[in-house]
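Milestone 3.1: sequence recovery, worked example.
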């Protein structure tokens, strides 16, 4: 059952990603340049109406998927890479390397995530890459702790000890054997971090800390709220659709995480 749930989640993620990639061809209008009458209600010409400056909201939604997903994936990649390197070095070499890297990790874990991200976003140039870097750098510590604990278990396995005894280098063992053991954990952490990155970007954009010239689901909601869409019927086609998109992608990634977690549990039972 869990495998089916993960498959459904993965299918949903692929579908949303394909739609995001094909946004320039699927969108009926360019939301950056094409402007018509303002505050139009949904119709055959504008499926979700238009916003306060006449941009087609449905087209905004498609283009916004590209930014939200890109930030989610990029921030997750940065977080996983930093956390994996720190965790692998710490667990594999131990000693002074382990103590130093775990002190750095503990320091990052004590920093309050959301307030720090808000402060950094407020004092840096807004943009998808900047937001991704901030989110990635502030979220790697949990991955490092998990990877370290797994390395401590993996490096004591008999076949790893045999390979080391045959004279294989640390780089060879880590890249050819240890990484293979860690793939389920990377999948689990990646899906969780992509979801967290998308939700964090939406939160920052809603607070007005996103890029004002880049479409994302969060910025759509921000401008809708700023123009008092909640006080009119416009919230139905201006706020609800991007909100539902955020919920949908979060559900898809949660399903994938759920499936990966089951695979990890099975591996731990047989280790």
């Amino acid at each position: 059952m869990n495998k089916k749930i993960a498959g459904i989640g993965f299918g949903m993620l692929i579908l949303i990603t394909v739609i995001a990639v094909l946004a320039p061809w699927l969108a009926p209008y360019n939301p950056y340049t094409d402007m018509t009458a303002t505050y139009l209600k949904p119709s055959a010409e504008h499926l979700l109406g238009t916003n306060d400056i006449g941009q087609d909201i449905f087209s905004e939604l498609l283009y916004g998927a590209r930014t939200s997903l890109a930030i989610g994936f990029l921030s997750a990649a940065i977080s996983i890479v930093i956390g994996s390197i720190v965790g692998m070095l710490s667990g594999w070499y131990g000693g002074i390397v382990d103590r130093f890297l775990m002190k750095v990790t503990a320091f990052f874990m004590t920093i309050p995530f959301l307030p720090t991200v808000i402060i950094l976003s407020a004092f840096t140039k807004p943009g998808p890459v900047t937001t991704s870097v901030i989110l990635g750098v502030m979220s790697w510590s949990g991955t490092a702790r998990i990877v370290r604990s797994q390395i401590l278990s993996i490096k004591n396995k008999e076949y790893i000890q045999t390979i080391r005894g045959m004279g294989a280098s640390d780089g060879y063992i880590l890249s050819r054997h240890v990484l293979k053991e860690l793939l389920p954990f990377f999948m689990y952490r990646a899906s969780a971090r992509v979801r967290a990155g998308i939700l964090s970007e939406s939160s920052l954009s809603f607070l007005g800390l996103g890029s004002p010239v880049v479409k994302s689901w969060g910025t759509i909601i921000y401008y809708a709220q700023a123009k008092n869409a909640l006080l009119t019927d416009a919230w139905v086609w201006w706020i609800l659709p991007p909100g539902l998109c955020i919920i949908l992608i979060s559900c898809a990634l949660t399903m994938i995480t759920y499936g990966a977690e089951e695979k990890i549990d099975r591996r731990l039972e047989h280790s």
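The chain has twelve helices and no strands. The chain has one domain: 2-27+54-270.
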